[in-house]
């Protein structure tokens, strides 16, 4: 059974920033490949939600319900609640997740 999923505004901001960086630095073809990899990662999570592991930065937060999978050089941070997959954040693996989340939350206010 595939879980329903929702890409939250925080993840959309991360995806937009990632797309801008990749297109500027590497071009549209690289973005298309990256986007396809991200879509594949989300499809895998929908089928096997327990396959991800708890991100170090979020250990102990929300009873360990946040998980992540890697997709190339990117992280997909998600949570499953009531049989729905919520994609919270998509970002480069080298980004400081806590600083990024703070900046995104302030941007959404």
UniProtKB/TrEMBL annotation:
Entry superkingdom: Bacteria
Record's keyword terms, sorted: Toxin-antitoxin system
The protein, known as: Plasmid stabilization system protein
InterPro entries membership: RelE/ParE_toxin, RelE/ParE_toxin_dom_sf
Lineage of origin: Bacteria, Pseudomonadati, Pseudomonadota, Betaproteobacteria, Burkholderiales
């Amino acid at each position: 059974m595939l879980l329903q999923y929702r890409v939250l505004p925080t993840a959309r901001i991360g995806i937009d920033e990632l797309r801008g960086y990749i297109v500027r630095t590497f071009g549209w073809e690289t973005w298309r490949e990256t986007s396809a990899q991200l879509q594949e990662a989300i499809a895998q999570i929908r089928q096997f939600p327990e396959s991800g592991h708890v991100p170090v930065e979020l250990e102990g937060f929300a009873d360990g319900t946040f998980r992540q999978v890697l997709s190339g050089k990117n992280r997909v941070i998600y949570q499953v609640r009531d049989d729905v997959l919520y994609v919270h954040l998509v970002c480069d693996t080298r980004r400081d997740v806590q600083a990024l989340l703070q900046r995104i939350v302030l941007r959404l206010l």
